[in-house]
Amino acid sequence: MGQELTPVVKEITQEKINRYAEASGDFNPLHIDEEFAKTTMYKGTIAHGLMSVAFLSEMMANFAGPIWLSTGKMEVSFLAPVRPGDKITAKGKIISKEQEENKERITCEVWCENQKGEKVISGKTWVSLQ
Amino acid sequence: MGTEKIYLFDDLEVGQEFPSAEIKVTPETVAKYTEAVQDETPFYRDPAAAQQAGFEGIVAPPTMAAVYMLGALNQVKRPPGGIHARQEFTFLKPVKIGETLKTKARVEDKFLRKERKYVVLAMVTTNEKGEEVVKSKMTVIWAK
Fold first, then answer.
1. Cα B29 from chain centroid?
2. Of A58, B32, B49, B53, which is most buried with the most CB atoms under 10 A?
3. Among partner residues B38, B41, B70, which is closest to A10 by beta-carbon distance?
């Protein structure tokens, strides 16, 4: 219990945000149009929240392996924007283990933080290990 | 094609369903996604590594659910300025290259909190066999 997961670290750039827009089909100008984004409460472009969710999923797949794709669950809240130039670290730790027939259901507390140590996303993940 | 009607908070009803959206998962869509999220996990990229991991071939990263979800969301035109507050994903089955998936959205809940308008959209993605591959739940602060 309390075991920490191996963190995943990503540098965010506008180019990477544009690439995510292309890959996901989410072309909301808040993410890709600097002039528009300046007029919003964010005062500049921000990354898609689901990009950081992908970093958490990568951390979970590294930890649990292929079974993450068929027994994984995640619930997260978006707390603060991720901006170009940020360095985002996905982190997590095991908070409980429960025996389920021949599997063990693991619950983790997970979050992404920026280079200032501010949490930008936080939540929980679950996965069943053989 | 999505309808042009913009759904305001007051237009939405709990239980309301929207037309499903279809997407074919191709080597290109998976490569584009893994590149965008900088995920180098071998079983999303290399057929041999995928087989070694117990899959038939390359599989899509589970959070590509965001892509399937967006197709369904395009059926629900929203007023601009919404905020994505929460997200849930339940991964049920790995998605293989070549699969055609269908995603359908319904309004699971709507409520006011601190004068903000919250809408919870629940989405289910199924494969050609009708098997559920991922369930998504998105909580959005509706702009109007």
1. 14
2. A58
3. B38
Does the complex come out with an ipTM higher than 0.85?
yes
Both tokens assigned to A54:
């992908």
Torsions phi, psi of A98, nearest 5? -130, 135
| Chain A contact set for B66 (CB, 8 A) | 24, 48, 50, 53-54
Burial A31-56 (b: 16+ CB within 10 A, else e): bbeeeebeeeeeeebbbbbbbbbbbb
Instruction: List the Cα angle A129/A62/A95 in 5-degree steps.
Output: 55
Residue of B nearest to A14 (CA): B36
The per-residue pLDDT string of chain A (130 residues; one tens digit each, 9 = 90 and over) reads 789 999 999 999 999 999 999 999 889 899 999 999 999 999 999 999 999 999 999 999 999 999 999 999 999 999 999 999 999 999 999 999 999 888 999 999 999 999 999 999 999 999 999 8
